Amino acid sequence: MPTPTIEELRKKTPVKSVADKPENQALLRNLLATKGKVPTDSHPSSASPAKRTELPGRYLTLEQPPISAFDDNPVFNEIGAALFLGVSDETLKKWRQRKMGPDYIQYGPGGPVRYTIKALLEFRAAYTVKPARKKK
Q1: What are 18-67's pLDDT values in tens digits?
Q2: Per DSSP, what are the bridge partners of residue 114?
Q3: Three-class SS string for the chain?
Q4: Please, are residues 78 and 113 in contact by the beta-carbon 8 Å criterion?
Q5: Do the Cβ atoms of 19 and 28 come closer than 8 Å?
Q6: How far apart are CA 88 and CA 9, in angstroms?
């Protein structure tokens, strides 16, 4: 199956983009002609490269990633979790040794330790102090 030309694609799906502006058409043609390579001093381009009228297939598919690709509960390493809580990573290590601190995930004995954002938020909320206010 031959790769469709730019003109054929525009007829099928009219897309409004920066490349559609007349002032950017020359830049787009030049970029396609040079295949995205910037000429350097060691390789002077004295000859005009052939102009491309087709886009490679990999640039034609602009699909959204599936919803499962978005992680709603990311994990942090020890340093990231310590920064999030406002303590040092050594403090987190001591808390783990004393069976204190936020819940964590450890991948095998002696393996890397990770903290979920949910566990960090719950831990921070559990230790939030609300001082008693005087009533007027």
Answers
A1: 556 666 677 667 666 766 555 555 555 555 566 666 666 655 555 666 66
A2: 105
A3: CCCCEHHHHHHHCCCCCHHHCHHHHHHHHHHHHCCCCCCCCCCCCCCCCCCCCECCHHHCCCCCCCHHHCCCCCEECHHHHHHHHCCCHHHHHHHHHCCCCCCCEECCCCCCEEEEHHHHHHHHHHCCCCCCCCCC
A4: yes
A5: yes
A6: 55
In this prediction the pTM is 0.47
pLDDT for residue 35: 60
Domain definitions of the chain by residue range: 6-59, 75-126
